[in-house]
Amino acid sequence: MSASREKRSAGLLLFRRTDDGLEVLLGHMGGPFFAKREAGAWTVPKGEYEPDEPAWDAARREFQEELGLPPPDGKAVPLGEVRQTGGKIVTAWAIEADLDPATVVPGTFRMEWPPHSGRTREFPELDRVEWLAVARARELVVKAQAAFLDRLAEHSV
Questions:
Q1: Which of 155, 40, 142 is nearest to 90 (CA)?
Q2: Is 41 helix (H, G, I), strand (E, B) or coil?
Q3: Mean pLDDT by 10-residue block, N- to C-terminus, for the chain (157 residues)?
Q4: Phi and psi, residue 11, nearest 5°
Q5: End-to-end Cα separation, the chain, in angstroms
Q6: Are 70 and 57 in contact (CB under 8 A)?
Q7: Would the CA dihedral through 44, 46, 48, 51 be positive or negative?
Q8: pLDDT value for 57
């Protein structure tokens, strides 16, 4: 696959400091495929973008689309890129901010469900959003995205 054809996503990883240590805001992927899964079903709020859109702009746009809230202002810490199992390249930035998960109004997507039924259903992009301690987040996040947690921990020491 040529570099220009690779699927790319960009996202923002919010973090906050608590008395118990660093916490990150992750979302549980919506839809029937992830409904009963925990490990590997949590993600940085992110989304795909086209090659002509700057990754930073896409990360902020996707945060708004996925969570229904404006992206927070603050110093963005570049966390670099990871390649997920399916080949998608994800770029992320961390921003120190607080957000009440109860205020999230997730975006939705449509898909045929059940498969081959001819019926289309709408599902939330993220069906839950939670603050998680970094150790717990590492257990739940999409495997490749754990590198973002490690990079954030190195930065915030």
A1: 142
A2: coil
A3: 74 96 96 94 96 97 96 96 96 97 95 94 96 97 98 83
A4: -155, 170
A5: 38
A6: no
A7: negative
A8: 97
As a whole number of angstroms, the distance between CA 127 and CA 5 comes to 29
Query: pTM of the entire structure?
Result: 0.92
Cα(87)–Cα(95) distance, rounded to whole angstroms? 26
pLDDT of residue 157: 54
Nearest to 41 by CA among 147, 143, 151, 149: 143
Phi, psi of 50 (to 5 degrees): -85, 155
pLDDT of amino acid 5: 73
The pLDDT of residue 2 is 46
Give Cβ neighbours of residue 147 (< 8 Å, ≥ 6 apart): 79, 80, 82
String of DSSP letters for 73-136: PS-EEEEEEEE-TTS-EEEEEEEE----GGG----EEEEESSTTSS-EEEEESEEEEEEEEHHH
Give the model's pLDDT for residue 4.
Answer: 53
Residue 53 has what pLDDT?
A: 97
Q: Which two tokens stand for residue 3?
A: 């570099």
